[in-house]
Amino acid sequence: MKFDLETVLFFFLAVISIASAILMITRRSPISSALFLVLNFFTVSGLYLLLKAQFIAIIQVLVYMGAIMVLFLFVIMLLNLQDESKLREMVSYKKITSVLLSIFLFCLLAFTIYFGFGSKYNKISDKALTLGTAESLGVELFTNYSFPFELASFLLLAAIVGAVVLAKKKFN
């Protein structure tokens, strides 16, 4: 493995991404968890840039860091969590099982990376520069995947209409 700037940036962003994800789920304050989530979104966007997927990186910043995080922070402020003692759980079998399953899945992932990707992929494909652009994604989306795209849009429209109808009944 050669250590050029791209490899160093990958490992740097990967370590920050993993650390921010762990810190996000272990913090007691919802605001600090949301800020670690923003850091995680930023590092994932950097990883997308390293993979030459510029469009997905920009969408990651605009949609997730912009719109979704504003929504999360709005919900956190709306809930106004003052007494967090009711939210704490004691040690239970569910927690112990989830920790053991997490350790098992991490070991399985490490095993897969160690034996599956040793020196198999040393060279990036020549088409990697054009795969992540907005033009190539648009061509694929509107030619090969036009029906699933339209189906997803109708499902989202039905969900929005259903949420508006339910909210209107709730407030009347």
Percent helix: over 70%
Distance between the termini: 64 Å
**How would you describe the shape?**
globular
According to DSSP, the number of beta strands is 0
Poorly predicted spans: none
Which structural class fits the helix and strand makeup? mainly alpha
Mean pLDDT: 81
CATH classification class of the largest domain? Mainly Alpha
Question: What Rg, in angstroms, do the CA atoms define?
Answer: 21 Å
Please give the CATH architecture of the largest domain: Up-down Bundle
The CATH topology of the largest domain comes to: Four Helix Bundle (Hemerythrin (Met), subunit A)
Main sheet?
A: none
Number of domains: 2
Helix count from the secondary structure assignment: 7
Strand content: under 5%
CATH H-level homologous superfamily name of the largest domain: NADH-ubiquinone/plastoquinone oxidoreductase chain 6, subunit NuoJ
Q: Give me the strand/helix succession.
A: HHHHHHH
